[in-house]
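ok so I'm stuck.
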Amino acid sequence: MKKIASVFMVLLIVSAASVKTYAQISIGVSVNIAPPVLPTYTQPPCPVDGYLWTPGYWAYDQDGGYYWVPGVWVSPPRVGYLWTPGYWGYDGAVYVFHEGYWGPHIGFYGGVNYGYGYVGTGYVGGRWAGNSFQYNTAVVNVNKTVVHNTYINKTVINNNVTVNNNSFNGPGGVTAKPQPQEQAAEKENHIQPTADQITHRQVAVKDPSQFAKNNNGHPATAAMNKVNGSRFTPEGSRAQPSVRANAAANPAHAGNAAPSADNSANSHSPARRTNVAAVNNGAARAAAQHSNRAPRRQALAPREERPHRERQR
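replied:
not stuck anymore, here's the structure
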């Protein structure tokens, strides 16, 4: 019995350690419908010195389908760490979502051009300089009354790239393959999405206006300046939260609304994890995803107190 108890304790310790940092982990989940194309939206200015931009993305809910998680500025979990966005991968049969993660280097995110520094590979919206993060205002928008660590590097902007807003990697989408440096980054120890990021997604899934079936791929709230902060429409105007979204973000003031679930369990799940979803509604949305769309381009010159208008190439 003592030997069995010792083995159990060792396994318990190993499991507890694995939730803090981990190498790439992926759990296969099949979804037969392609995510909608990425919407073009305005980036709100960074509200706090040291916050990093995490781009918006389409997540999946088994009951409601695809919903938009707004792009948002968040506090990184550790100095020197960068965000590798999650992405949808398509192998010709199913779509699988690979969860994003924090790490010392940017890994592979499917070659998807999320904009504002996430141009398909790496990140050109800023850099760490010791314990401070410096923002490239040729690419991202910051509130210069509170953010002073800025520089301008326009050489990272590629004007010859057609922005097609593809939202997944694979046949019919982006055909990028992992580069050696991205493969190396994926083998490093990572940190899962923070509790704030998980809360941010939980609020989005409770907002009916964020679901593609209700907004036809044009979410009412495209971006936010911070978690539970100000909401912005794709055009950059202030957006009003729905009743459900407001209750989800402020459970203590939601009357009879059920409080939000404890995030602690979710916040310790592996970051390289896929959304749990399975649908059998055919590939109707995949056909719409693969249709030809006019390219949209982002204005290059950022404004100090107002957001950039469109997605960065």
